[in-house]
Structures are given as C-alpha cells and as structure tokens.
Write a structure and sequence with these properties.
The complex is a heterodimer. Chain A contains 15 helices and no strands. By secondary structure, chain A is an all-alpha fold. Classes of the chains: A mainly alpha, B mainly alpha. Chains A and B meet through helix 1, helix 4, helix 5, helix 6 and helix 10 of A and helix 1, helix 2, helix 4, helix 5 and helix 6 of B.
Chain lengths: 277, 301
C-alpha cells in the first residue's frame, strides 16, 4: 500500500472511533452539565455544556427533599444481597453439575437451560399475585429471592469449575472433609475471579433494574434509585430536569467506579457465555 | 433370573443416587425456586387467562373470552409490529457498527485500545431510566442540542419524539447507544479466537481490506454474529425501560412494545385475566420466532 493511502486509512479509522466515542460520551456530559444548571438554563439557547450559572441546588434538593440517602441504601441492600445470594447458590449449583455424576444429570441440566428461553417479564401478572399472597409486595424479597439460583449463573460456574483439577478435591475427601466443606474451602477460593466477574454483573443488573421495583415497590421510602429518578417527572410537563439529572449522575457513580476498577473481570463475565457457548 | 437382575439394577441405581446425594442438594435450590417462582406462576397464568379478574375480589370464569379478544386488540398487534420495525431499524446498524469497531480495535492499527473500548462500553452500565431522560433533553424539539446542531449546519430541526417514525428512530438511537459496546465487546472476544494470519494471508494474496473483511472475517465470525442476532431479537421484543422513559410508547402507540402493553393491561387497567392471555400469546409467538431462527441457522449449516 502507498504511504499516503496508509495515512488516509489511519485517519479514517480514528475518525470513525472518535465520532462514535463522542456520541457515546455526549449523554453523560449533558447529564452532568444539566445537573448543575438552573431551571431556566436547561433548555436555554444556545445549549451550553458549561452551565451559565453554576448551582448545587439540584443536589441539595434530592438529598434533602427527596430522601436520596434512604433510596441509595435501599438500592445497595437489594443489589448487594441479591448478588451475594445469587453467587452462593449459582456457584454451588455449578459445582454440583461440574464435578458429580448422578442419574438424570443430563435431563436436569437440559431443563435448566430450557428455562432460560422463558422471558421472565411475561410472568409479571402471576408472579405479582404470588408475591402478594406471600405478603412480599412492597418488600425487597421479590427482587432478591426468585433469581437467587438463576440458570445463567449455574451455567457460567459449571463451565468455570469443570476446568479445575479433581486431585485437590480427592485429597480433601481422603482427609475426611465433607462435600460442602470441599466446596467452601477449596472450590470457592479457586473460582474467586469468576465470582468477581459474575458478582459485578448480578450487582449491576439489580442496581439498574426498573420493571421489578416498578411492580413490587409501592411506598416511596422503599424505592430504589431507578424508581426515584422516574418519579421526578412531576406530571403535565412539569419534569424536575435538574434534580432528575443530578440523581442520574449519582446513580451512575458507584457503577462507574466499580467498572473502572474491575473492567477486565467485568468484560470476562460478559463474554464468557457468548463466545464459547 | 430376570427379576433378580432388575432388582440388582434398581439397587445399583439407588446406590448411585445415594452416593451423589450431595450433588442433588447442591443443585436443588434452582429447581425449588423455579418450581415456586417459575412453574407455579406459569400454571397459575394459564388458569388466570380463562378468568375475568381485577386482581382483587371474586374471580369469574370466562372461558375463551380473553383469547377471543386478542385478534381485535389493535394495540397489542401494533406492539408486535413495533417489535419487528424496531428490530429492522436498529439491529442491522448496531451489529454492523459493532463488528466494524471490533475489527478496527483488533487490527492493531490504532492506539488507545483500552480507552476506546471503555468509552464505547460505558453506556452498558448505565440504567436506562437515566439514559432515557438524558436523551429526552438532547432531543428536545426547540433548543435541544441535536436540533440546534442540525440548524447550525443549515438543516431543518427534526420532531424527534413527536413524529411516528422519528420517535422510532430516536428509540433506536438510544438502544444502539446502550448496546453497541456490549455487542462490540462480544465480537472482540470472538475476533481474538480467529488467527490474525488468516486475514493477513488474504491481504498478501492481493485482497483489499474490504474483501478481507467480508470474505474472511465475517464468515469466520458467523457463530458470534448469530449469538448477537438472537440476543438482539429477544431484546427488541422485550424492550420496556428504554421505551417507558424515552417515548412512553407514543406518539399514538408508535413505539409501544408488547411488555408495555401487557404491563398497561395488568397494572394500568387491572385486567389480570386478559393480561395473562396476552402474555401467553406473546410467549408463544416469541418461542415460535426463536425456533424459526434456530432452524434457519441449522439449515444453512
């Protein structure tokens, strides 16, 4: 290839990357900028990235008048509890399928995979009825318990644990360790990177969940962050854009920090099922 | 003779089960939870779909009345049609861009691999409530950034959220924004399993980069592309949050999706029986669609 042609291609490649990157970053920039704007500047002309008058009022409003600390606590409890519980039950299930042979194993595993086709949201009506009969409406249980042993996680950990050498487990068995003890003290430490990957994905899924909380969490003091952001549309075109964007910024920060720190594990968790399976 | 053999087989079987009893304990949480929160709701839903019920008070047996209403439910069929329309609006663009970006980043011809990957992936960790409202601000008709920029370069502003087709396009923009990075990361992982020598060999043999892309990379990436395609199909019929925060299903149901319709029937007008019938119809249609996709794929192979 000619040198000028090569230069042209390189410029073109960078051009595509930069253009798409701008499109990706723009909503974040606007979120942040709007969160520091006065109401009259939000749709002012011309649109400005730097707020003409810088204000912290939007943040004061959501913390003091919209009970944001309580909302954040709720979101952390739901996301944390469900991530931990899911990690425990899915890694345990994955271990069972990876390292044991037992009658009906293949049938049971096929059944488990088949349930992944069912879109969970289709069952919103009967699930709501069941949760109401259990007295679980307006509690966190419907968001934590049903997915605690999900098929995706079990599938993930079965793949992950299959590659572990049996010798360690056999040695522990000879020493008289119980099967659960082997799982807890030998398997879990080995699969720690996988636990991090999937734990992050579980945590994120619940943090960003909207439909579940929308169906089950009724009183404002039980809301999670997505419901609280949505509630800032005051009806009849009276949206509190500033506070809404401030709350959006806050809802992003924890995930952003986690993602930047654990990016590698995160990406591994996302791609694990796709490329091999 | 036969009797005793059978018996021995049976005791063997029991011994195996007993030996593996811990495995059954370990995998049991899934089946217990699925029975309570999956199977039972599915069965209850069948029953509910034959009743008229407001969620509280007496349940009235209604026979096939709910199912008889479905063919005339214009909003529901509109929502299914919207699923198809949205699929064609965003999936081809998104998957093509994802593959192109992955190839660019994987080629080693640009610096800042990690920087660009992080940036493009970032929307995936964002909740769609925040994103939907941020897009509303950007797409505002009068002084929203997009329209101001369009007018600045001499074009007319666009009714992004007020017109039937522009609203669908706006929704597609939001979805592409949210899911491009996810698909790109998966395609990158797929590309890394393809030996780089293959495309290099094609280039040495005189193929143009475009030819190498379409004749070598794309065919080898078929399984990965198919994975993305299937997840996107399921995704475009399962849209909820994106739509309910950006367009609320409007204007005039142009962007309403099946889940939004089912949610509205269930929790907006409290027709639990009818909502269950709709949910089952929707599930059957999606199931059918997935099977067709798998079949088509198998035939090609």
């Amino acid at each position: 290839m000619l040198r000028s042609e090569k230069l042209f291609t390189t410029i073109l490649l960078y051009g595509v990357l930069i253009l798409i990157s701008i499109f990706m970053i723009l909503p974040f920039v606007w979120m942040l900028s709007t969160s520091f704007k006065l109401p009259q500047d939000i749709f002012g002309f011309p649109p400005q990235i730097i707020p003409p008058t810088f204000t912290l009022e939007n943040y004061r409003f959501i913390f003091e008048e919209k009970n944001l600390l309580r909302i954040l606590l709720n979101t952390i409890i739901v996301s944390g509890a469900s991530a931990l519980l899911s990690l425990f039950f899915t890694s345990l299930g994955g271990y069972g399928f990876a390292k044991f042979n037992f009658p009906a194993k293949n049938v049971l595993f096929s059944m488990l995979l088949a349930t992944m086709i069912i879109p969970g949201a289709v069952m919103m009506v009967p699930s709501f009825v069941i949760m109401r009969n259990l007295g679980w409406v307006d509690t966190f249980w419907p968001l934590i318990v049903p997915g605690a042993a999900n098929a995706f996680g079990i599938f993930f950990f079965r793949q992950y644990i299959s590659s572990i050498n049996d010798e360690l487990m056999d040695a522990a068995r000879i020493d008289g360790a119980s099967e659960f003890r082997i799982f807890w003290s030998i398997i879990l430490p080995i699969i720690a990177p996988g636990l991090t990957s999937l734990g992050l994905i579980f945590f994120m899924g619940n943090w960003n969940n909207y439909l579940g909380p929308l169906i089950y969490l009724k009183s404002p003091e039980n809301w999670t962050i997505t419901l609280a952001i949505n509630a800032l549309i005051g009806g009849a075109g009276l949206t509190y854009w500033g506070p809404q964007m401030a709350m959006s910024v806050i809802s992003l920060l924890p995930l952003l920090v986690i993602f930047l720190v654990f990016q590698r594990q995160f990406v591994e968790g996302i791609t694990a099922g796709a490329v091999k399976g | 003779m036969r009797q005793s053999e059978k018996k021995r087989n049976q005791t063997d079987w029991w011994r195996e089960i007993k030996k593996a009893r811990w495995a059954y304990v370990f995998i049991s949480p899934f089946y217990i939870l699925f029975a309570i929160f999956g199977l039972y709701p599915m069965l209850l839903s069948i029953y509910l779909s034959f009743t008229r019920w407001k969620g509280v008070g007496p349940m009235e047996f209604a026979g096939l009345v709910n199912f008889a209403l479905i063919p005339q439910d214009k909003i529901f069929w509109q929502s299914m049609a919207n699923g198809v329309i949205l699929f064609f609006l965003y999936v081809p663009v998104m998957l093509f861009l994802a593959l192109v970006l992955a190839v660019i980043l994987n080629s080693g011809r640009v610096r800042g691999f990690r920087f660009f990957r992080t940036l493009i992936f970032l929307p995936f960790i964002t909740n769609m409530v925040a994103a939907g409202f941020a897009f509303q601000i950007l797409l505002e008709k009068q002084n929203g950034l997009f329209n101001v920029l369009l007018r600045y370069v001499g074009l007319a502003g666009v009714p992004w959220l007020e017109d039937v087709w522009w609203a669908r396009i706006s929704l597609s923009l939001l979805i592409i924004w949210a899911w491009l990075g996810y698909n790109m990361v998966i395609m990158l992982a797929g590309l890394q399993t393809i030996p780089r020598e293959l495309t290099e060999a094609a280039l040495v043999d005189g193929a143009s980069p475009q030819q190498a892309f379409f004749k070598v990379t794309v065919p080898l990436m078929r399984p990965v592309i198919l994975f993305c395609l299937i997840t996107s199909t399921i995704g475009s019929f399962g849209l909820f949050t994106e739509v309910s925060t950006l367009t609320r299903g409007g204007p005039v149901n142009a962007t309403i999706t099946p889940l939004l319709r089912i949610y509205g029937v269930a929790f907006g007008s409290y027709q639990f029986g009818y909502a269950s019938a709709l949910a089952y119809t929707f599930f059957a249609l999606i199931f059918f669609l997935t099977i067709i996709q798998f079949r088509l794929n198998r035939e090609k192979e």
